[in-house]
Design a protein that fits this description.
By secondary structure, this protein is an alpha+beta fold. Helix content is about 45%, strand content about 15%. It has 10 helices and 5 strands.
Length: about 220
């Protein structure tokens, strides 16, 4: 049955307009993005199928063009639309971070890092440079590595902090393996960076480990 034949209060678009986007399921949100279904499947059915195929919204968002377009009913146009939505989300979150205290909007920081790092196939290390009011000065990808590790040099992090005249920073890197638990090497590196940056009076406020399904905070774990 086509969505247009459903009772009006059950249609995703009408539900969103009446109650807000937060009440919709993942499949219903995707149905609004997809707009129409295909023969034998409503847009909600297709949304549900996409989530089943990829495992989660995060994994769908990070799917390659080839994998996305291989799904019946998808194509380059829909892939382009999806990438545009994701980029708008990244930019909106970046604006949120830049116009306020980053430590008072931790959700925006986490979401921004997840959107930028979770889908990377190799390990990437980045830093969010902050002023004395914890407003974002810059976000930089500092090092790239192999599937399992990136070589990080404290001296280079210190140099970038000086360039931005930062008073504090937030560190982040991804784990392509999908395991968010910080390794002993992660903890040792964080300590070395914290000590090196302290010499120029720059504080490390947190270090996030990002995976497809989780963003782990060193500060919350008591590891800083």
């Amino acid at each position: 049955m086509a969505i247009t034949e459903w009772p009006e209060n059950e249609r995703p678009r009408e539900k969103l307009l009446t109650h807000g986007a937060c009440v919709l399921s993942d499949a219903e949100l995707l149905a609004i993005f997809l707009r129409t279904g295909i023969k034998g499947q409503s847009a909600v059915d297709m949304g549900r199928g996409l989530i089943t195929q990829f495992g989660s919204l995060n994994r769908l968002f990070s799917a390659s063009r080839m994998d996305f377009c291989a799904i019946h009913g998808m194509g380059s146009a829909k892939y382009a639309q999806l990438q545009a939505v994701l980029e708008m989300s990244r930019r909106a979150l970046a604006e949120t971070m830049r116009h306020g205290d980053a430590m008072k909007s931790p959700g925006a920081v986490r979401d921004y890092l997840r959107l930028n790092l979770a889908s990377r196939e190799h390990e990437v290390f980045c830093a969010v440079f902050l002023d004395s009011q914890h407003r974002v000065l810059a976000v930089e990808e500092l090092f790239r590595g192999t599937l399992s590790q990136a070589s990080v040099y404290p001296r280079e992090v210190v140099k970038r902090a000086l360039v931005h005249n930062a008073a504090a920073l937030i560190l982040a890197h991804n784990h392509p393996s999908g395991v968010a638990e910080p390794s002993m090497a992660d903890q040792s590196l964080t300590g070395a960076l914290k000590n090196a940056l302290a010499l120029i009076d720059v504080r490390v406020l947190d270090h996030f480990v990002v995976t497809q399904d989780q963003v782990l905070s060193f500060a919350e774990r008591g590891l800083l």
